[in-house]
Amino acid sequence: MNSTDAVRKAPAKDPWQLPDVSGLVVGVLGGTGDQGRGLAYRLARAGQRVIVGSRAAGRAQEAAAELGHGVEGADNAECARRSDIVIVAVPWEGHAATLGSLREELAGKLVVDCVNPLGFDKKGAYAIRPDEGSAAEQAAALLPDSRVTAAFHHLSAVLLKDPAVEEIDTDVMVLGEVRADCELVQALAGRIPGMRGVFAGRLRNAHQVESLVANLISVNRRYKAHAGLRVTDV
């Protein structure tokens, strides 16, 4: 039997058999904003060790004290250095500058970009296409020594921050170049009750995932909702 036959006959790995990430430290850059605070709160509430980052350490520490559940606060550089996985939840306008200034601190880290490049006018929200193709691809270009993935784009900050909400009913689309890195992020999403991480392709496909948020904003405004996404038949 040659090697090709061996591969064909080898049992397929269960795509839902994900690694244990419970012992990893998660940093949230932009952890004082709505989305960052919400993610930090949900992950810490699930038992993850979380550090929120901000340009000002004092502001991050105040946010951490309000979030509770053992959340710590630090400036962005310290947050990046002390974390195993770093979620980027900064405003799009400061995305490039923030990541460019943290290239050294983020070297070797698993970076999860959840930034949505959006504009707003009288007609509502609309997607912006960065020169690199997407926010995630911009992050990868700015952080050549990091392992960049994309996820957590379609979550309602209102639901994330609401302590009365026990579960967040949604799937999290995860994109990246290395399947093992994506599985770590999928596992992290799965730590939050109600959520499931679903592999959704390579970073070149991140733009349509990021831009879909503009559609969800329209849905939410029309139906007074906090819409999420579910991927069927998987």
From TrEMBL:
User: Which SUPFAM superfamilies does the entry link to?
Assistant: NAD(P)-binding Rossmann-fold domains
**One Pfam family of this chain:** F420_oxidored
Keyword list, A-Z:
Oxidoreductase
Domain Pyrroline-5-carboxylate reductase catalytic N-terminal intervals: 26-117
Q: What is this protein called?
A: NADPH-dependent F420 reductase
| Gene of this entry | npdG
